[in-house]
From TrEMBL:
The keyword Transmembrane helix applies. One of its GO terms (cellular component) is plasma membrane. GO terms for biological process: response to symbiotic fungus. It is found in: Membrane. Residues 1-23 form the signal peptide. The keyword Secreted does not apply. This is Phytocyanin domain-containing protein. It holds the Pfam family Cu_bind_like. It is a single-pass type I membrane protein. Keywords: Copper, Disulfide bond, Electron transport, Glycoprotein, Membrane, Metal-binding, Signal, Transmembrane, Transmembrane helix, Transport.
Length: 154
């Protein structure tokens, strides 16, 4: 009897764990990476970003950087202090909260030449849980009972 309870508990844990979605990793600009002369708004169009997803900005070290900015700084290409720049050439940003997110390159006039990205992040997606294997085994092996129907209608 104790084994049965442990088994049911393990199945319940497995079913709960399967409801969480895995994060999606987006390489900003795909094969082009983070560079001047690329349309990042077109790249983002049709993509769905959720809390927990990751943006990866790839570029040659020293050629670019990444700043997270607000909407006004995005529109005006105003870069924050240099100490706030991401500069590794493989910068990973985990999208931690829902809402609009703005990113620019602060090197020379790169932002003015279109090296900027705006996205909308949605709350974390949750998949519907899969049916419990225990439920499927229990009910699939039993014969279905049909309600009584009379064929002797007047």
């Amino acid at each position: 009897m104790a084994f049965g309870r442990v088994f049911v508990l393990l199945l319940a844990i497995a079913a709960f764990a399967s409801t969480a979605t895995s994060a999606t990793k987006f390489i900003v600009g795909d094969d082009s990476g983070w560079t001047v002369g690329f349309d990042y708004q077109a790249w983002a169009k049709g993509k769905v970003f959720h809390v927990g997803d990751k943006l990866v900005f790839q570029y040659p070290v020293g050629a670019h950087n990444v700043f997270k900015v607000n909407g006004t700084a995005f529109q005006n290409c105003q870069k924050p202090p240099l100490r706030e720049a991401l500069t590794t050439g493989n910068d990973v940003i985990v999208l931690a909260t829902p809402g609009r997110k703005w990113y620019i390159c602060g090197v020379r006039n790169h932002c003015n030449y279109g090296q900027k990205l705006v996205i909308t992040v949605l709350p974390q997606a949750v998949e519907a849980p899969a049916p419990s294997p225990l439920y499927a085994m229990t009910y699939s092996t039993k014969k279905a009972k049909r309600p009584f129907f009379s064929t002797n209608w007047p």
